[in-house]
Design brief:
The protein has 16 helices and 16 strands. It has about 425 residues and is an alpha+beta fold.
């Protein structure tokens, strides 16, 4: 066993024992998103590295530190660290701007980030996400937040915290950036190296820094005064106020978090996160916002857009484990030909069933049936001679000898798993 090959650090097998949990997330996603008019899109797992450099932004941690990049035929390729850039690329490349607006899309699948693995943080993890193109009005921001909240509710997660903020537009954000630079300048030498680099390129990201020394700087009164100032312009304020009005009307409780800037460069106006108290330090389940300039930046028509992504591992850790369901039936018989034929007939009638393939003793087969199924369908010598089936309810031990017709009638009335 010493030289067995193991799964890579930060990656995990999803085993049969946990798969119903995952299937539940995916089935609920399909149901909730479809009924809101969102269609699923599946984009490739790897893309040109440039897509993420331009699409996610080269001042972000994702692009600077976390990408799995490799070269093939002199092309630089990257395993997708997130899927918004890929969806936008597909939207542009497939001329989806010609479709009726809005274009509403959702996705699910693995993402890859070279991070330090810890609770709630893997190197290959999964996201489910939604993107909506074509609407600049705050109704779209409300609709996309509602979609996230509805999905969480459908999963039974009703008590999560929604935090919102507005980053303003590029115009009003410039004033804020300047004010931040002025007040942070005296602290520049003691900030973490990342924030020193962010200071010029994207000082907003400093608000998001988790390093202790930077957090302490942000708590200083003069810095707080800048952070709480209402820097966003009239139009952006109106957009934000309307969104809040819609969320109030929908009874979606939210908190304004002025430090919420999100890790990605492409957001403008609305940003939001949904957090849980039950997740420890990696407490964000969902992150999203508006990205009105991304489609154009990646070479498409000027198209406003808004979206979010949720971490599926984190969702799963908030949900109670789903107990595996038993099969409907187990065929108990020492006559392999008849057993095989009955199994096939039962499956064709839509019920789940299995049988013993090694001709074990009757008693052993019944034991296995009790563990794995709700009913045993018994084909012994007598049954085969008389063309009957003995159907045993494995919960109550009640057993009836039925004609084949009666047995199949009974099967049709069974609750299918
Ligand atoms: P964080 O602050 O936790 O690093 P982020 O801002 O990098 O999050 P996003 O890029 O917004 O995360 O991704 C959306 C969601 O995907 C997160 O809220 C989280 O639930 C999940 N997520 C992100 N990175 C990971 C990871 N490495 N492992 C597991 N889940 C992750
Ligand atoms: Mg991150």
């Amino acid at each position: 066993m010493s030289n067995i090959i193991k799964a890579q650090k930060g990656t995990k097998d999803i085993l049969p024992n946990d798969i119903e949990q995952w299937q539940n997330l995916e089935l609920k996603a399909l149901e909730i998103f479809t009924r809101a008019g969102f269609s699923e899109i599946r984009t490739p797992i790897f893309e040109a590295t440039e897509l993420f450099a331009r699409g996610v932004g080269d001042t972000t941690d994702i692009v600077n530190k976390e990408m799995y990049t490799f070269e093939k035929s002199e092309r630089s390729l990257t395993l997708r660290p997130e899927n918004t850039a890929g969806v936008v690329r597909a939207y542009i490349e497939n001329g989806m701007h010609r479709l009726a607006s809005p274009v509403k899309l959702w996705y699910k699948g693995p993402m890859f980030r070279y991070e330090r693995p810890q609770a709630g943080r893997q190197r290959q993890f999964h996201q489910v996400g939604a993107e909506m193109f074509g609407i600049k009005e705050p109704t779209a921001d409300a609709e996309i937040i509602l979609l996230a909240v509805d999905y969480l509710k459908a999963l039974g997660l009703n008590d999560l915290d929604v935090e919102i903020n507005s980053l303003g537009c590029s115009d009003c954000r410039e004033g804020f950036k300047t004010a931040l630079r002025v007040v942070l300048k005296p602290e520049l030498d003691i900030m973490c190296p990342d924030c020193q680099a962010r200071y010029e390129k994207n000082p907003l990201r400093i608000l998001d820094c988790k390093v202790e020394v930077c957090r302490r700087i942000l708590e200083k009164q003069e810095v707080q005064n800048v952070i709480v100032s209402d820097y966003i312009c009239g139009d952006c304020q109106k957009h934000f106020d309307e969104l809040k009005k819609y969320l109030d009307a929908l009874n979606i409780k939210y908190k304004r978090n002025k430090l919420l800037v999100r890790g990605l460069d492409y957001y403008n106006r609305t940003v939001f996160e949904i957090k849980s108290n039950n997740l420890g330090s990696q407490n964000a389940v969902c992150g999203g916002g508006r990205y009105d300039s991304l489609v154009k930046n990646l070479g498409g028509e000027d198209t406003p857009a808004v979206g979010w992504a949720m971490g599926m591992e984190r969702l799963n850790s908030l949900l109670e484990k789903i107990e595996s369901k038993k099969m409907n039936a187990y065929v108990v018989s020492n006559f392999s030909v008849e057993a095989l034929k009955l199994v096939e007939e039962l499956r064709n009638l839509g019920i789940s069933c299995d049988f013993d393939m090694t001709n074990k003793k009757f008693g052993k087969q019944l034991e296995k049936a009790s563990k794995n199924a709700d009913f045993a369908f018994i084909l012994g010598e007598d049954e085969i001679k008389n063309s009957t089936i003995s159907v045993k309810n494995l919960k109550t031990s009640e057993q009836k000898n039925l004609s084949k017709d009666e047995a199949f009638k009974f099967v049709k009335s069974m609750k299918k798993t």
